[in-house]
Design the sequence.
């Protein structure tokens, strides 16, 4: 597969790299790292990373202005379906490559390079750059590490394998950077966000089956002076609550007139419920956008049934 990707990269003088809407560190870092690596190895090519930026991640790296292009290659990272690709007019491109670690949703590229067992898209790109024998530098290495560490939630999930540690070790040895500074870039946050985290911990409702859920209304977002995106991302901080197997935040996003439903799990498979509500994602980390809180509460009811079923299966199997 890497030979086909390398051939396409060599063939096109203009390469645009895009990723999904609602940017997160794996999406952003995978596109920026790939852009910088191609620029380093093919300085004569025009390589742009595009998409809507976010103030929250502005310090990670700068995106490029979208330009009208001709006879160009489009590489989409970290996105399984066409409708979630940010700021791309597909008809402009001569050839398309997808590089992704989400479960397959639809085919929209000439090359579909998917590994849904990978911790992150950055992990796939780390391997790819090595296979293509690209020259890399420490800033590219740091970007890839940030995306990987973020999507694996600091190596918490089963996608963390001996091979992953080996890959990370190779990069850290060959292209070192300061880990403590890198973690600050990812995790330093204002006290208001920590206070909101406290609010969520205090107000999360927990069902008898072990579903935790909370609504974060626009009033709460204003009270704590945070933005809707940061509030929605809080979901990742509630991983190890003994009484909670699946947990959900329902965050009001007034600007886009929708509710962002974020779902995480330590056992029950949740993405099928998200898909029923036009969302999707991974088996244990999914999301959806719905028009009203009432609809979001329907997701809660369905998820509660999923958790209940899972718990009764666990009891039957005596685990
Ligand atoms: P979130 O909780 O919003 O960070 O989303 C977690 C994961 O769920 C994302 O990485 C996506 O893979 C997926 N996801 C979230 N929202 C949607 C959506 N509206 N459609 C499809 N997949 C989604």
Sequence:
């Amino acid at each position: 597969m890497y030979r086909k990707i390398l051939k396409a990269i060599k063939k096109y003088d203009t390469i645009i790299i895009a990723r999904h809407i609602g940017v997160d560190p794996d999406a952003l870092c995978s596109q920026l790292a790939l852009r910088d690596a191609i620029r380093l190895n093919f300085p004569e090519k025009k390589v742009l990373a595009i998409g809507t930026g976010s103030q929250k991640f502005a310090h990670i790296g700068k995106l490029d202005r979208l330009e009208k292009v001709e006879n160009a290659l489009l590489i989409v990272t970290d996105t399984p379906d066409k409708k979630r690709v940010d700021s791309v007019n597909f008809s402009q491109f001569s050839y398309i490559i997808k590089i992704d670690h989400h479960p397959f949703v639809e085919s929209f590229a000439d090359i579909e390079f998917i590994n849904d067992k990978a911790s992150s898209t950055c992990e796939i790109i780390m391997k790819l750059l090595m296979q293509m024998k690209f020259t890399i530098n420490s800033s590219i290495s740091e970007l890839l590490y940030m995306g990987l560490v973020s999507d694996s939630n600091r190596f918490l999930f089963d996608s963390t394998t001996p091979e992953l540690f080996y890959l990370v070790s190779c990069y850290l040895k060959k292209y070192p950077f300061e880990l403590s500074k890198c973690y600050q870039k990812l995790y330093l946050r204002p006290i208001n966000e920590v206070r909101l985290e406290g609010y969520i911990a205090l107000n999360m409702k927990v069902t008898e089956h072990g579903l935790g859920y909370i609504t974060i209304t626009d009033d709460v977002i204003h009270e704590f002076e945070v933005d809707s995106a940061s509030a929605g991302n809080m979901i990742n901080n509630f991983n190890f609550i003994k009484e909670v197997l699946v947990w959900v935040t329902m965050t009001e996003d007034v600007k886009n007139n929708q509710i962002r439903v974020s779902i995480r799990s330590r056992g029950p498979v949740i993405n099928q419920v998200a898909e029923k509500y036009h969302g999707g994602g991974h088996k244990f980390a999914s999301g959806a956008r719905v028009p009203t809180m009432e609809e979001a509460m329907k997701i809660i009811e369905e998820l509660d049934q999923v958790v209940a079923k899972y718990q009764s299966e666990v009891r039957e199997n005596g685990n």
Notes: The two ends are 41 Å apart (CA to CA). The pocket of adenosine monophosphate is lined by residues 84, 102, 232, 235, 260, 262, 279-281, 285-289 (CB under 6 Å).
